[in-house]
Amino acid sequence: MQVHRGIPEQADSAAVLTIGNFDGAHLGHQALLALLTGKARELGLPAVVLTFEPHPREYFSPADAPARLASLREKLLLLDAAGVDRSYICRFDARLAAQTAERFIEDTLVRGLRVRHLFIGDDFRFGARRQGTFDMLRAAGERHGFGVESMPTLVLDGERVSSSAVRSALAEADLDHAARLLGRPYSIAGRVSHGDKLGRQLGFPTANIQMKHRRPALTGVYAVSVEGLAEQRIAGVANVGVRPTATSRGRARLEAHLFDWTQNCYGAHIRVHFLHKLREEHKFESLDALRAQIARDAQAAREWFESHPV
User: Fold this and answer.
1) How far apart are CA 214 and CA 217, in angstroms?
2) Cβ pair 167, 216 in contact under 8 A
3) Is CATH 3.40.50.620 the right assignment for the domain spanning 2-154?
4) CA atoms of 197 and 306, how far apart (whole Å)
């Protein structure tokens, strides 16, 4: 998949396009992307996604913005896996926030991306003060010669599938429900970096992944499986949080202790799948108390995997 920063003056070919943030690429997103790629193959045109960075809610109200389900890199990997040919990352800033709906249609859709067919979700709004609507897009399509389709919200067992619903499930530690909405277990991917080696000192070496955003969608201690190091996923136990026993600095990080794994994995890009929550993160009175709890967590995770093989 080709990845472009910004919108060109004019794309080199017409496109079948969809627009959205696609945070987490849940089942609703996947259904929309299936329509996109199917129409693109039918017309012999590239399947194109336009997405925004940062998320508009992060721009307008950073303190109240929802936790991200995926980093930008993770989102791009998920779009690539869905068969998208090109992704355009549009910076959401003051200029874009003030752009009228009419100008967005003319500059971005018609001239910049040369849209031939457009798919949008049924709640899509665009332009300054969210004045752009489906009816406006359909009228523009009639003028400029592109088709417009709106995909109804996907409903699963009576519930609207959305990124908000996934976040709620994760916040409630209902990993099975989150997996149903996503179509897969929730996961976080990233590159393994050097940490302070505290886990090694405690007898439980960890693969450390610095979180891209300060507010992860879940926190606590989990039984996990890790892919990216061997042909089969590796079982383990992971902590997501700020490590209050070890530091007073509140930067969230992901640390995974892999069972029966002794090889160096620094620099590897791995994906950690969250399968079962063991407990919340706590501050312990000493490192010895933390070491004892990690041992109990590892044992609890191993026992869970006995009836839930990787």
Assistant:
1) 10
2) no
3) yes
4) 29
